[in-house]
Specification:
This protein is of the alpha/beta class and about 210 residues long. It has one domain: OmpA-like domain (60s Ribosomal Protein L30, Chain: A), CATH 3.30.1330.60. Helices cover about 40% and strands about 15% of the residues. It has 6 helices and 7 strands; from the N terminus they run βαααβαβαβββαβ. The protein is elongated.
Length: about 210
């Protein structure tokens, strides 16, 4: 013999199953950073946070901003190209921003030679990013630190010193002021992207039966 659960118990089970579907939209996406975009925008607009510094930290956190090179070479390796593909994808999502690419070398060779080599490395990166759809008007390869800023201080060849570093340098079209709405546009576009998610499928609650003894 089989008997059904009381109606109130079935109703309670149904409500419990629907709890996830009835949560506030976006609740599942909050990992402790909800409201950061608004907070950062407020700090920028009030002058309490430097725009370039804030976006630079964001760029460095989201993508690999540094690539390395073979000894005495400005040729891009397969690994470097993969890293630059990530950079280019990020840059295309933020067309308001400009970027600078800084070339570095190890301590082998003369200062003049290494400065020229660092510049060629920076130009190689700019050329590759341009081939991936980033406008050259947003890219600069104007400064080479050569051998003057090593990651590892050694006179021997050191791959970690043979590198380029890509950084956010400001807003496109020569604008340096965040109050023109460009920074707000960046935050707003990201906010809309994060808010768009598929609504969870409705859950069907069947009648719960208890088998008889």
């Amino acid at each position: 013999m089989r008997r059904t659960l009381p109606l109130f118990l079935v109703t309670a089970l149904a409500l419990s199953a629907c709890t996830d579907a009835n949560r506030e939209l976006g609740a599942g996406m909050d990992h402790g950073t909800f409201g950061n975009a608004t907070m950062n925008n407020t700090l920028v607009q009030s002058g309490q946070m430097d725009v370039r510094e804030a976006l630079g930290r964001r760029f460095a956190a989201d993508v690999p901003s540094t690539i390395t090179f073979p000894f005495n070479s400005a040729q891009l390796t397969t690994e470097a190209r993969r890293a630059l593909d990530h950079q280019a994808n990020w840059m295309r999502q933020f067309p308001e921003l400009r970027f600078s690419v800084y070339g570095h070398t190890d301590l082998v060779g003369s200062d003049a030679y290494n400065r020229a080599l660092g510049k060629r490395r920076a130009q190689a990166v700019v050329g590759y990013l341009a081939s991936r759809g980033v406008s050259t008007t947003r890219l600069e390869a104007l400064v080479s630190y050569g051998e003057t800023r090593p990651v590892i201080v050694t006179l021997a060849p050191e791959q970690r010193n043979r590198r380029t570093v890509t950084e956010v340098s400001g807003f496109a079209q020569g604008s340096q002021a965040p109050l023109n709405g460009k920074y707000a546009a960046v935050i707003w576009r990201e906010y809309i992207t994060l808010a768009e998610r598929r609504h969870p499928a409705n859950k069907v609650v069947e009648q719960v039966l208890i088998p008889g003894e």
